[in-house]
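Query structure, 792 tokens:
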């Protein structure tokens, strides 16, 4: 350490005061130069990658190493400038501190001589000036090369005029202006040249024709399909538990459920294997992306698993995973956006480009959150591969909400609809929307010994309330009907609480707190009655209660709840009216297991309680909610549903081919003629079709149910002809084709027949008093409404 001479300190101090404006000027010059270089060279150098690009061509701009060297030198010098300025600032601060606090000792190498300060600053400024000149020379050289390359390769790299690719030239124009908007273009080798645009638009996207001078062998070799492999039923589910992952309470709940039901899945697989015999089953590669569990979607469910939150979605997803795995298919499971991108082959960037590889999955099961995430990150590949997606959709999506243009024009657009998928790609928890596919879930199945034990251990005066969250108990008027129930039965609740009893729960209710699933099952096995308060809608708990020998009592809604009058349904892509808390239980199970009454009518409610106390029921579980029923259903979907093969155009108008129908002997409906040929590949088989003309204002869903049948939207194309109306003896004074989710239909007055113009709008749902809709119905297997009798 040395001591600074007082005269030197004074000189330095004066020099700093003199140079302060100049120092600011130099800093401004440096900052301006940096910004200029980043702006000017960003498009040319930032997207360059080391190594050869698969799209490297002869027209590539030269001078890359020289440019990178200059940039590195400039970066080093600018960093040196910053360090020098920092040293000057410290020196000035130190001199001021010395004036205030006495002698200050500094290392010798941190104290440059005062006389050399001006020379060092001027040297830095000169270096910056030299770099600016050098960069200007490089830019001029680069532009000259670009000009020469463009002239030399114009014959090979002009946008072709090909009527088969009408959008090519427009896309090239777009690429010229916007190729730097997403780093994914540079990832695929786009570098700002015409050739790179055309190569990208013909080989990565498909807006331009293949360039004749490009080698197409690799692309042709990659497009060959893999050989088919037979699916084999699995009996060991331990690997599935590993695939499901960990770290979230929701995943822990799902894994526990899968473990508990393993024995039932294995037994169900054995039964289905015997039923199918030697039937070949293609093994599919399947991606399951549970979007609502990703952090990007908020994952609101996981924190509520241990606090009484809704478990229905997790019950269903656990059972979907188990069914797919037991059926023998290849499975990947993702619950994060990063995992999804990795499995799909999403290129780096903002999601504008297609996938880097052909989609390695035959099917993708996801939800609305996952659907949105895939659309954001798959680029054009989303449109190409969306036919492989299956959307788990609890409440269903009707065709009027699914068709983007129609929904926008006619007021059906919501936050969840307008995806333009085949409506059958949406898969529901209950079979309430035949336009969609019924996925379902499973309830634990009891053997005969367990059923007898339950019947002998029932308490005739014990009721359990359906509702684990305290908010459900805030129902207005509950005191009135609970008071009536309390006169006859001991009431039990399973409401979550942390320290104090929830004030919403009346004092006469015995609250057990939130129970683990096995303990909740034991409570149901003792109870006589399981009573709902009107919410939640269509959950799995009522089926579990009925399977454990309980009678389910629920409220009748008058008027019915829908998106028009109830906040819960507002924004959902359906106009369905819900007449009770659990329509499936009311319509497909019914008495004596399910009682639906008006809770506002005290006399009706009390009479129902008295009747229930004297009613004896056995544990009951519909076949479609057993493990075997779900395996059978998903097997049929995987092997037969194909939304990627374009269907044959539906016959339309008066000049269409004659429909293969005959009028039934009682002249009420149409049937498939016995001598008519079956359409190859059609599923369900068309010989199960029955066509009815609905009364005015009646939807096809209800019309088919009125006749003990199920509406089958895939049969609409066969009815979409004037001949179908004629065979039903409906006189058509005129026939028109339009986009309307109620067509085909007959309008009175006017004797006008309307045919459907847009196949995605064929819909079982919807009605209008003006129209008599032409409805395609089919039979169904006992206990399995999703499948016709000949569907396996």
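Result returned for the query:
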């Amino acid at each position: 350490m040395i001591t600074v001479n007082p005269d030197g300190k004074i000189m330095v101090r004066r020099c700093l005061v003199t140079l302060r404006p100049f120092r600011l000027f130099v800093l401004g010059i440096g900052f301006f130069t940096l910004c200029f270089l980043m702006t000017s060279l960003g498009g040319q150098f930032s997207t360059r990658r080391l190594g050869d690009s698969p799209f490297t061509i002869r027209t590539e701009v030269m001078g890359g190493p020289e440019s990178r060297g200059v940039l590195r030198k400039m970066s080093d010098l600018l960093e040196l400038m910053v360090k020098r300025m920092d040293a000057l600032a410290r020196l000035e601060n130190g001199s001021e501190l010395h004036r205030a606090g006495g002698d200050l000792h500094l290392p010798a190498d941190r104290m440059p001589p005062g006389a050399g300060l001006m020379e060092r600053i001027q040297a830095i400024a000169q270096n910056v000036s030299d770099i600016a000149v050098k960069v200007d020379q490089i830019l001029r050289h680069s532009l000259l090369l670009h000009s020469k390359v463009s002239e030399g390769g114009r014959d090979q790299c002009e946008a072709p005029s090909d009527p088969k690719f009408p959008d090519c030239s427009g896309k090239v124009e777009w690429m010229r202006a916007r190729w730097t908007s997403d780093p994914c273009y540079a990832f695929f080798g786009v570098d700002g040249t015409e050739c790179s645009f055309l190569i990208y638009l013909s080989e990565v996207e498909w807006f331009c024709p293949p360039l004749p001078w490009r080698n197409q062998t690799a692309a042709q070799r990659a497009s060959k399909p893999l050989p088919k492999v037979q699916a084999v039923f699995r009996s060991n589910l331990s690997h599935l538990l590993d695939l499901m992952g960990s770290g979230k309470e929701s995943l822990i709940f799902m894994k526990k459920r899968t473990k508990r039901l393993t024995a039932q899945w294995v037994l169900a697989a054995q039964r289905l294997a015997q039923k199918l015999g030697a039937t070949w089953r293609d093994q599919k590669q399947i991606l399951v992306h549970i979007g609502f569990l990703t952090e990007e979607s908020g994952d609101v469910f996981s924190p509520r698993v241990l606090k009484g939150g809704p478990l229905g979605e997790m019950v269903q997803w656990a059972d979907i995973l188990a069914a797919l795995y037991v059926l023998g298919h290849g499975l990947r499971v993702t619950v994060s956006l990063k995992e999804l991108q990795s499995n799909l082959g999403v290129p780096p960037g903002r999601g504008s480009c297609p996938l880097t590889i052909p989609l390695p999955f035959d099917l993708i099961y996801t939800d609305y959150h996952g659907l949105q995430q895939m659309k954001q990150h798959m680029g054009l590949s989303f449109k190409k591969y969306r036919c492989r997606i299956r959307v788990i959709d609890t409440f269903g999506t009707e065709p009027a909400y699914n068709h983007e243009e129609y929904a926008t024009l006619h007021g059906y657009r919501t936050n969840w609809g307008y995806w333009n998928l085949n409506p059958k790609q949406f898969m529901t928890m209950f079979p309430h929307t035949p336009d969609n596919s019924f996925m379902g879930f499973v309830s634990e199945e009891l053997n005969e010994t367990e059923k007898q034990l339950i019947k002998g251990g029932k308490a005739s005066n014990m009721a359990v309330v359906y509702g684990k969250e305290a908010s459900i108990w805030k129902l207005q008027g509950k005191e009135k009907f609970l008071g009536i129930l309390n006169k006859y039965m001991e009431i039990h609740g399973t409401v979550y609480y942390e320290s104090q009893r929830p004030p919403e729960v009346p004092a006469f209710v015995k609250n057990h707190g939130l129970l683990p699933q096995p303990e909740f099952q034991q409570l149901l096995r003792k109870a006589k009655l399981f009573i709902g308060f009107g919410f939640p809608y269509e959950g799995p708990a009522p089926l579990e209660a009925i399977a454990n020998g309980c009678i389910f009592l629920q409220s009748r809604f008058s008027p019915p709840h829908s998106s028009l009058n109830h906040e819960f349904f507002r924004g959902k892509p359906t106009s369905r009216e819900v007449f009770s808390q659990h329509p499936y239980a009311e319509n497909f199970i019914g008495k004596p297991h399910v009682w639906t009454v008006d809770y506002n009518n005290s006399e009706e409610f009390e009479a129902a309680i008295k009747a229930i106390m004297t009613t004896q029921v056995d544990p009951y579980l519909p076949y479609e909610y057993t493990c075997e029923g779900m395996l059978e259903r998903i097997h049929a979907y995987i092997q037969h549903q194909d939304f990627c093969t374009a269907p044959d155009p539906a016959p339309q108008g008066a000049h269409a081919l004659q429909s293969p129908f005959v009028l039934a002997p009682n002249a009420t409906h149409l049937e498939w003629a016995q001598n008519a040929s079956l359409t190859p590949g059609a599923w369900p088989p068309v010989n199960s079709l029955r066509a009815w003309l609905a009364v005015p204002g009646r939807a096809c869903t209800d019309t088919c149910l009125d006749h003990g049948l199920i509406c089958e939207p895939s049969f609409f194309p066969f009815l979409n002809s004037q001949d179908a109306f004629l065979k039903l003896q409906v006189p058509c004074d005129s026939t028109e084709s339009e986009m309307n989710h109620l067509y085909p239909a007959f309008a009175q007055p006017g004797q006008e027949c309307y045919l459907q113009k847009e196949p995605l709008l064929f819909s079982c749902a919807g009605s209008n008093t003006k129209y008599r809709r032409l409805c395609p119905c089919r039979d169904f297997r006992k206990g399995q409404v999703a499948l016709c009798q000949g569907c396996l």
